[in-house]
Design a protein that fits this description.
The chain is an alpha/beta fold. The chain folds into two domains: 3-168, Rossmann fold, CATH 3.40.50.720; 171-338, Lactate dehydrogenase/glycoside hydrolase, family 4, C-terminal (L-2-Hydroxyisocaproate Dehydrogenase, Chain A, domain 2), CATH 3.90.110. It has helices spanning 3-22, 36-44, 60-68, 83-90, 114-131, 144-157, 171-185, 219-230, 232-240, 248-265, 312-338, and strands at 25-29, 51-55, 75-79, 95-98, 136-139, 166-168, 196-198, 205-207, 271-278, 289-297, 300-304. A six-stranded parallel β-sheet has the order 3-2-1-4-5-6, sandwiched between helices. Helix 4 packs across helix 5 (114-131). The longest helix has 27 residues, at 312-338. The termini are far apart. The relative contact order is 0.13. The structure holds nicotinamide-adenine-dinucleotide (NAD) and (2S)-2-hydroxybutanedioic acid. Residues 103-104, 110, 142, 172, 233, 236-237, 245-246 line the site of (2S)-2-hydroxybutanedioic acid (LMR). Its EC number is 1.1.1.37. Belongs to the LDH/MDH superfamily. MDH type 1 family. NAD(+) binds at residues 30-36, 56, 117, 140-142, 250.
């Protein structure tokens, strides 16, 4: 290639990157909810976002009007719950965050939400597949272990499934793990980077404490820590006493994951987050989705890391997680088969 053509190609690439930087549309489905509102607020504060589209079955335009007064550059628009409103909200989105659905009350498991949330997620997935088939889809609605497979099945049925673009958001488990470890150790949680693998409910949540360097957390102390991370969601459900589950910490976690994807899509290297994705790690055991450290890139999933060295205790935790995960994933797949 001549020097002039090389220089031209470089200018084109720069222009493309710059325009990609200027045009990151983020859509939130369920934007008026307990998670949706603070999550939308945090996305409005993110300078990497240029357009924010807020959709809900109620109050989308109201929340959008409120957030739109914040003096950051991005534009904000709310959409009415009509097929055309949903389509317009999704059109051109780079990231679609889905916190739509009902939260738990005390005494419920996340799986108890399945009957209500499965059809909400299925119908929203259909709209995303039609209007934004290339978007990164970030599923927050519970039970994540089943709702993510539901999205896959819908995308597959519409011939637009790309495993690199579908994520179950498990960041809250990572956030909690680093916070809880820091409480024990008296460290700054920002310096704690605890890998959490598996899925997002009860025993499917597996923190790999041995990889954090805190070898002194052992025995009963370790059991209590692992239990707190696995059932951290219950602490909030109990404290909110019937008024829902984690919303503010979840909004922070969702915003962190979206920010990581935006960084990666805008060219930053080495962006790694644990997330629940279609994964080769345990496919031979019939477990198609598994959360582990995932390197993110402009195409979504760049590299799925394996779990690294585990203790015997952690191997047992993973084994227990796999048994539940297999059932949870199958439940999502079966739901779409029976209720396409
Ligand atoms: P919420 O009830 O406060 O808000 C849910 C919102 O979804 C409401 O505004 C509702 O109008 C909206 N909605 C319902 N059906 C919709 C549809 N078809 N289209 C668009 N919007 C719709 O609940 P929340 O506390 O925000 O929790 C939302 C979900 O997130 C729950 O399923 C909860 O279990 C889950 N959650 C997941 C995590 C995680 O770590 N992945 C953490 C916390 C909560
Ligand atoms: C959480 O982990 O806080 C969420 O999954 C909400 C819940 O039901 O616990």
């Amino acid at each position: 290639m001549s020097f002039a053509r090389q220089a031209y190609a470089q200018v084109q690439r720069r222009a493309f990157t710059a325009s990609a930087r200027q045009s990151s549309k983020v859509t939130v489905l369920g934007a008026a909810g307990g998670i949706g509102q603070p999550l939308s607020l945090l996305m409005k504060l993110n300078p990497r976002v240029s357009q924010l589209a807020l959709y809900d079955i109620r109050l989308g335009p109201g929340v959008a009007a409120d957030i739109s007064h914040i003096n950051t550059k991005s534009t904000v628009k709310g959409y009415d719950p009509t097929p055309s409103g949903l389509k317009e909200a999704l059109s051109g989105a780079e990231i679609v965050l889905i916190p739509a659905g009902v939260p738990r009350k005390p005494g419920m498991t996340r799986d108890d939400l399945f009957n209500t949330n499965a059809s909400i997620v299925r119908d929203l997935a259909k709209a995303v597949a039609d209007a934004a088939p290339n978007a990164n889809v970030l599923v927050i609605s519970n039970p994540v272990n089943s709702t993510v497979p539901i999205v896959r099945e819908i995308f597959k049925s519409k011939g637009v499934y790309n495993p690199k673009r579908l994520f179950g958001v498990t960041t809250l488990d990572v956030v909690r793990a680093s916070r809880f470890v820091s409480e024990i150790k008296g460290t700054d949680p920002a310096d704690e980077n605890i890998t959490v693998v598996g899925g997002h409910s009860g025993v499917t949540i597996v923190p790999l404490i041995s990889q954090s360097g805190h070898t002194d957390i052992a025995g009963e102390k370790l059991d209590a820590l692992v239990n707190r991370i696995q059932f951290g969601g219950d602490e909030v459900v109990k404290a909110k006493d019937g008024a829902g589950s984690a919303t503010l910490s979840m909004a922070m976690a969702g915003a962190r994951f979206a920010e990581s994807l935006l960084k990666a899509s805008q060219g930053e290297k080495g962006v790694i987050e644990p997330t629940f994705v279609e994964s080769p790690l345990y496919k031979d055991q019939g477990v198609d989705f598994f959360a582990s450290k995932v390197e993110l890139g402009p195409e979504g999933v760049e590299k799925i890391h394996d779990l690294g060295k585990l203790t015997t205790h952690e191997e047992k935790l993973v084994e227990a997680a796999l048994a539940d995960l297999k059932k949870n994933i199958q439940k999502g797949v079966d739901f779409v088969k029976a209720n396409p």
